[in-house]
Each structure stands twice: as structure tokens, then as C-alpha cells.
Design brief:
- By secondary structure, this protein is an all-alpha fold.
- It has two domains: 61 residues, no CATH class; 55 residues, Arc Repressor Mutant, subunit A.
- The longest helix is centred in the middle third of the chain and has 18 residues.
- 67% of the residues lie in helices and 0% in strands.
- Helix 1 crosses helix 3.
- The mean pLDDT is 80.
Length: 133
């Protein structure tokens, strides 16, 4: 069933190579499905596309830490991000950085925007995924 759905998605994509992120953002479950599709017999175009996507996945995994953000974090934002990855509370982080809590909030909002997240835990997780921490 999953292979059929994948085959339909590949067949219906106007330019399948343009949709690499759509597939790879699904991470391990999709990579596993792509491996099955690449090994499937009689799959033709889907098999070839699955192999291309797997090559993209391998190169993305190899360069995950090197992938720059569209809007890179500043030195100060990286410093704040490192402290967000600690047990410190917001006011404690502000004191450590010698800034007001409002300034810390401003830095945090910018970090969240640049990492495309909405919580402290998600920001830390995304930063680890991108090799920023």
C-alpha cells in the first residue's frame, strides 16, 4: 500500500526532482520506504526516482552540520542558544549575559524565527539537528 502511494506521488509530481525536500523531510520512515522502492522489481521510474532520493538523503545526512540557515544566527544569538540548552531560567540567562529579560526575549524570538520553531525545546532540538550546538 505504501509503495503504491509513493509511486503515485512520484508519478503525479510535475518535476519530481524539485520535490526532494517534501520526501526527505519525512526522515527515517520515508528513507526506509524509499529503500524498499529502490529494491522493488518492475518499478521502473519509481525505482530510479527512489534511488535518486536516497542519494540526496545520503548527501544531506553527510552535510547536515554544514547546512547553513537562510538567515544565519549571529554570534550573540548562538550564545543565547547555548544557554537555552541549559537548565537556566530566562531571568538567569539574562543575568549571565548582562541584558534585560526583554532583550533576552528579543534574541529568543529571532532565534525561533530563524530556526522556524515556537518553543525553547524545539529550538534546542533543531540546533542540535543542524550542528549548531
Amino acid at each position: 500500500m505504501a509503495l503504491t502511494t509513493l509511486a503515485n506521488a512520484v508519478a503525479e509530481a510535475p518535476e519530481a526532482d524539485s520535490y526532494v525536500r517534501l520526501f526527505l523531510d519525512e526522515r527515517d520512515p520515508m528513507v526506509s520506504l524509499l529503500r524498499h522502492a529502490a529494491a522493488a522489481t518492475g518499478a521502473g521510474a519509481m525505482q530510479a526516482h527512489a534511488r535518486r532520493l536516497l542519494r540526496h538523503a545520503a548527501s544531506a545526512a553527510a552535510g547536515a552540520g554544514a547546512q547553513p540557515l537562510p538567515d544565519p544566527l549571529s554570534h550573540r544569538e548562538l550564545e543565547v542558544l547555548r544557554l537555552l540548552d541549559s537548565e537556566l531560567t530566562g531571568p538567569e540567562i539574562a543575568r549571565r549575559l548582562y541584558v534585560s529579560v526583554n532583550t533576552l526575549r528579543t534574541h529568543t524570538k529571532r532565534i525561533f524565527t530563524k530556526l522556524d520553531v515556537t518553543t525553547r525545546a524545539a529550538a534546542v532540538r533543531r540546533a542540535h539537528d543542524r550542528g549548531l550546538l
